[in-house]
Amino acid sequence: MPACLDCRHLSSQGTCRIVAPPGRFLRSCVIAIVDEYAHLFRPGQRVLEIGCGAWSPLKEQGRAVGYQWEGIDVNSNYMGKPTIATRLASVESIPFPDAHFDFVVATQSMEHWEEYCVNLRKGLSELFRVLQPGGWALVNVPIHFHGGPLFVSGNLRRLRSLFEPFADEIRFEQWRNPPTPLPAVRQTLRHYWFKPSLWGKSSYVLDIRVKRKAQVEYFNCRRLGILTKVRRALIDRTPLYYLTVAGILSFESCSSAWGDALSAMRTLLSVPAA
Ligand SMILES: C[S@@+](CC[C@H](N)C(=O)[O-])C[C@H]1O[C@@H](n2cnc3c(N)ncnc32)[C@H](O)[C@@H]1O
């Protein structure tokens, strides 16, 4: 039962009163969810938003209600607009002390962390480090839509297992009414075409609310998978990057030398080229 069936933005005819920008399929639910978050915050509390990009009504409401809003984003621009973040930083290394915030919010951001080589467990470990014990993490993500494979496939059991090491309580709520089949988004197709089990699946917004437990074991980077380590080494241009580039270049020159040798042999032997 999608939570949006109880949404206050739903008219008596069951249609959504929020007008989302064209093409932003799940936006009306995202706006309604963020609107709900705002009612949880009290004056004097501290709220961090991860991946705020260029949009967050929570920032404005913070001024009006009297809670302190901070935002981080890994990019200085989002879709051509400057970020509203108070700090430019990645979730992998949040520039705030332990247990600093009463709430940590991430709206439509977690599904993109891996694009910046952030291991999801490491990102969550940082998120819960800056959240005080008993504080709430409010994370919403699209499912069967775009982002990392975990979110496109909609493996909720695995998603829940990522939060479990940090949580006293976990709530998952599905939002979207009416659920229509997946929009043909290019990023989605990459995963979608190869997975018949996803055909005809509806995309929706998942609202994840997690209460932080008192004792949390933080993620140890040594546990990062080998592929993440290699990807990171390549992106950070460590010596492995230069070795790989050198390997590719020498392979290419070898293969062109091999191609030259083959055509020379063909000429010698008068074998017609295919
Ligand atoms: C789809 S946008 C959502 C922006 C905004 N929350 C909204 O709902 O309009 C995703 C945002 O997450 C940010 N982001 C992605 N990976 C991040 C990371 N590792 N650390 C911090 N921000 C990240 C992106 O830069 C982008 O601004």
Give a verbal description of the structure.
This protein is 34% helix and 20% strand. With 274 residues, the protein is α/β, with parallel strands linked by helices. It folds into two domains: 3-221, Vaccinia Virus protein VP39 (Rossmann fold, 3-Layer(aba) Sandwich); 237-269. It has a seven-stranded mixed sheet. The termini are far apart. The model has no long low-confidence stretch (mean pLDDT 84). The structure holds S-adenosylmethionine.
Q: How many DSSP H or I helices?
A: 8
- What spatial form do the alpha-carbon principal axes imply? globular
Total strand count, please?
9
- Give the mean pLDDT: 84
CATH top-level class of the largest domain: Alpha Beta
Structural class call reads: alpha/beta
Question: What is this entry, summarized?
Answer:
The protein is of the alpha/beta class.
Main attributes?
single chain, Rossmann fold, 2 domains, seven-stranded mixed beta sheet, two-stranded antiparallel sheet, 8 helices, 9 strands, binds S-adenosylmethionine
Would you spell out the secondary-structure blueprint of this structure?
Blueprint (H helix, E strand, L loop, with lengths): L26 H12 L7 E5 L6 H9 L2 E6 L3 E2 L2 E2 L4 E2 L12 E7 L12 H11 E13 L5 H5 L2 H8 L3 E9 L10 H7 L11 E9 L13 H10 L3 H31 L5
Parallel strand pairs: 1-2, 1-6, 2-5, 6-7
Antiparallel strand pairs: 3-4, 7-9, 8-9
Helix pairs in contact: 7-8
Bound molecules: S-adenosylmethionine (SAM).
S-adenosylmethionine binds next to strand 2.
